Amino acid sequence: MATLDASDCVDQIIDALPAASITAAQKTSRFKQFDIVADHSDHFYTYSNMSAGKKGDCFKNAGSNVYKKIMQEWRILENNLPESIFVRVYEGRIDLLRAVIIGAQGTPYHDGLFFFDFAFPSDYPNNPPLVHYHSHGLELNPNLYDNGYVCLSLLNTWSAEETEMWNPTGSTVLQALVSLQALVLNEKPYYNEPGYEEPSSGDWDLDSAEYNGEVFGLSCKTMMFLIDNPPKNFEAFVKDHFCERANVILAACRAYIEGRARVGYYDGSPSSPCTVDVSREFKGTMEALYPNLEVAFNRNAASKSA
Q1: Are strands 130-133 and 113-119 parallel, antiparallel or unpaired?
Q2: Is 185 in the same domain as 224?
Q3: In what order do the strands lie in the sheet with 34-37?
Q4: Is residue 5 part of a domain?
Q5: Comparing 120-129, 204-213, 253-262, which segment has the lowest mean pLDDT?
Q6: S-S: 190 plus which of 147, 181, 194, 211, CB 3.0-4.6 Å?
Q7: Would you state the pLDDT for residue 51?
């Protein structure tokens, strides 16, 4: 499973992240990377009992250590987010947070959007935040279950060495988000499965390549779910992202189907030779998915111009 030493420098990890497909709209002030919003009605933890009764007082008392620590987290996020991660926090529920990660180039998650809901416990930071992935019933990573469970040592949801677990004095939400992008939504997620080790020779393993094909198909299905049901406070973000990346995503689909690029490595070239072996299963899945994805993108573009 993916792990990260709690003492690792976040800046170094961010610098090492592969590039994500940042759209022109996201680079402007039209959609802030960090912002405080009001509506948390669709947040996974909105109706949890973690903030109910007396134990929720710490989230309302500006003098409490928990309140102060969460405000510190807000400042860290506001000033240090990598350009591929966007965060919304809630003025009336400081215990809740939502983030989206843009899938990086060079991975089967490229151009996808991956949403996570966080909830701070009443004894934060003694214990890490709870994290729920918006899976839409799809399991596109060994660390991200189809029920939304997130398996990561830094969140204490997977056993590991003490240095890889949550550290109350040093771990942060930013570190958790960077871990999700760098260690979970990575180039070869097949090897995130316990007991699966990457070949020491560095050869591209066939099982890993096939898994990446499955993952990309599930990522495309996730895109369609998000277009139809964008999370609150990210509606414009989702619309703009897929308006600007639709042609690239569809071109990548064709390149992968035709064997002109390995999944995750489409470079925009229309004339690459067909040198990649494509399984019958992957080709059939993507041929069936492609027209539905195209329709979803066209519908998204039409709603933007309406």
Answers
A1: antiparallel
A2: no
A3: 34-37, 85-90, 93-102, 113-119, 130-133
A4: no
A5: 204-213
A6: 211
A7: 72
Whether the Cβ atoms of residue 258 and residue 283 lie closer than 8 Å to each other: no
Q: Are residues 176 and 270 in the same domain?
A: no
Q: Are residues 170 and 285 in the same domain?
A: no
**Amino acid letter, 127:** N
Question: How many domains in the chain?
Answer: 2
**Do 64 and 170 lie in a common domain?**
yes
Is residue 151 within 8 Å of residue 133, measured between CB atoms? no
Quote the pTM value.
0.90
**pLDDT of 49 higher than 90:** no
CB neighbour class for 76 (10 Å; exposed up to 12, middle 13-18, buried from 19): middle
What DSSP designation does 175 have? H
Predicted confidence at residue 8, as pLDDT, reads 53
Q: Of the candidates 84, 83, 93, which has an alpha carbon nearest to the alpha carbon of residue 56?
A: 93
- 201 domain residue, yes or no: no
Residues 222 and 179 reside in one and the same domain: no
Round to whole Å and give the CA distance between 208 and 188. 7
Q: Are 173 and 77 in contact (CB under 8 A)?
A: yes
For residue 143, give its domain range. Answer: 10-192
Task: Report percent pLDDT > 90 for the chain.
Answer: 74
pLDDT of residue 7: 47
How confident is the model over 41-47, as a mean pLDDT? 97
- Whether 151 sits among the annotated catalytic residues: the reply is yes
Q: 101-158, pLDDT tens digit by residue?
A: 999 999 999 999 999 999 999 999 999 999 999 999 999 999 999 999 999 999 999 8
Q: Which of 9, 58, 151, 220 is catalytic?
A: 151
CATH code at position 140: 3.10.110.10
Which phi and psi (to 5°) does residue 219 adopt? Answer: -65, -40
